[in-house]
Design goal:
Elements: E1 7-10, H1 18-24, E2 32-36, E3 47-49, E4 62-66, H2 83-98, E5 104-107, H3 112-119, H4 126-133, E6 140-144, E7 153-156, H5 166-169, H6 172-190, E8 196-200, H7 215-229, E9 233-238, H8 246-249, E10 254-257, H9 260-271, E11 276-280, E12 286-289, H10 306-321
Parallel strand pairs: 1-2, 1-5, 2-4, 3-4, 5-12, 7-10, 8-9, 8-10
Antiparallel strand pairs: 6-7, 6-11, 11-12
Helix pairs in contact: 2-3
The structure holds nicotinamide-adenine-dinucleotide and 4-hydroxy-L-threonine-5-monophosphate.
The site of nicotinamide-adenine-dinucleotide (NAD) has 18 residues, from helix 3.
Binding site for a divalent metal cation: 160, 205, 260
Family: Belongs to the PdxA family.
Pathway: Cofactor biosynthesis; pyridoxine 5'-phosphate biosynthesis; pyridoxine 5'-phosphate from D-erythrose 4-phosphate: step 4/5
Length: 322
């Protein structure tokens, strides 16, 4: 069965919290294989090398698909010499997922700056890199809570761009694409038969009828009317400040937001330890914890594994539905 194929857990930035979270993630209780350099794992980790994702290891032992890095990992201090290998690991995991050898991928955090400095990484994050590896397919980034009720699921239409560029990048084509991809993924991957989507405005009070900005009246509201006429269940444009408290969240399954922080502040505030980043629209399953490399605590063994555990379980669950 598809859902029983292991998930590939990519090592991410080895100077971050990724390598210490990998053995803790065994608590997820789903089959997965760590793809990275075993020399970066914390001392005392019980691990065994496997040749393919399907190979079995003893319970309580981390299965490792070996990818040798040129330099050791010093917690909190990314080495530019390792940047290219971090990128190779992601590409190798995608290949394993696309070939059918793995059920999907779950990515431990990368440090964008370290990859840019060390390997001229031309993408702002995994999301854009994965879309490129998949053949430049349109994707959206969704972050989903796993431990709060009603759930919080958010999709920023614009992702890793400067705030000053948001009004120009936010347009009807991008918003419609985000809504359609989200609607389809909620049906396919989250088993929601009739998804309810809420759309945030860009401006305070969703523009308050043009008094505080005109994007809502000029094109967001007409676009939503058009999609409603097609049968999509959409509310909005809504004032973003009042759409994330519990009674408001009970009225929708996912919130489409204008920009990164409008979307990610509510989810990371409500469920930092259980939030999952999932890329929708890819031909393979990809999830990730919601946090970054956490250089300030890396190597101390105190990083919370809740988010990566939730991400592995979600990837396994999604793979089973495909
Ligand atoms: N999926 C990804 O690859 C991903 C996701 C988010 C951020 N990042 C990258 O990570 C780097 C650092 O980003 P940041 O500092 O904004 O966010 P961060 O999530 O790394 O850290 C923010 C704060 O949360 C704490 N924290 C993070 N993860 C934790 C955990 N598992 N347990 C306990 N505390 C934890 C950190 O110690 C820090 O105080 C950046 O380069 C960013 O782009 C990558
Ligand atoms: N924007 C995400 C966040 O702040 O959590 C994060 O940078 C991860 O993005 P990728 O999955 O594209 O690396």
């Amino acid at each position: 069965m598809t859902g029983t194929r292991p998930i590939i857990l990519t090592c991410g930035e080895p100077a971050g919290v990724g390598p210490e979270l990998a053995p803790k993630a065994l608590a997820a209780g789903v089959p997965f294989v760590f793809l990275g350099d075993p020399r970066h794992l914390p001392p005392g980790t019980r691990w065994a090398e496997v040749a393919t994702p399907a190979d079995r290891v003893e319970d309580g032992v981390l299965a490792v698909l070996r990818h040798d890095f040129p330099a050791p990992a010093v917690p909190g201090r990314p080495d530019p010499a390792n940047a290219a290998a971090v990128i190779e690991v992601i590409a190798r995991a995608v290949h394993l997922a696309q070939s059918g050898a793995a059920g999907g991928i779950c990515t431990l955090p990368i440090n964008k700056e370290a990859l840019k400095t060390g390997a001229s990484f031309p993408f702002p994050g995994h999301t854009e890199f994965l879309a490129n590896l998949a053949g430049d397919v349109p994707v959206v980034m969704m972050l989903a809570s796993t431990t709060v009720s009603p759930p919080c699921r958010v999709v920023p239409v614009t992702i890793h761009i400067a705030l000053s560029e948001v009004p120009r990048a936010l347009n009807p084509v991008a918003m419609e694409q985000a809504i359609r991809i989200t609607d389809a993924a909620l049906r396919r991957d989250f088993a929601i038969a009739a998804p309810r989507i809420a759309v945030a405005g860009l401006n305070p009070h969703a523009g308050e009828n043009g008094v505080m900005g005109t994007e809502e009246t000029a094109w967001i509201a007409p676009l939503l009317d058009h999609l409603r006429a097609e049968g999509l269940d959409i509310s909005g444009p809504l004032p973003a400040d009042t759409m994330f408290h519990a009674p408001a969240r009970a009225r929708y399954d996912a919130a489409i937001c204008a920009y990164h922080d409008q979307a990610l502040i509510p989810i990371k505030t409500l469920d930092f330890a259980g939030g999952v980043n999932v890329t929708l629209g890819l031909p393979f399953v990809r999830t990730s914890p919601d946090h970054g490399t956490a250089f300030d605590i890396a190597g101390r063994g105190i990083a919370d594994a809740g988010s990566v555990i939730a991400a592995l379980r979600m990837a396994h669950d999604m793979a089973g539905k495909r």
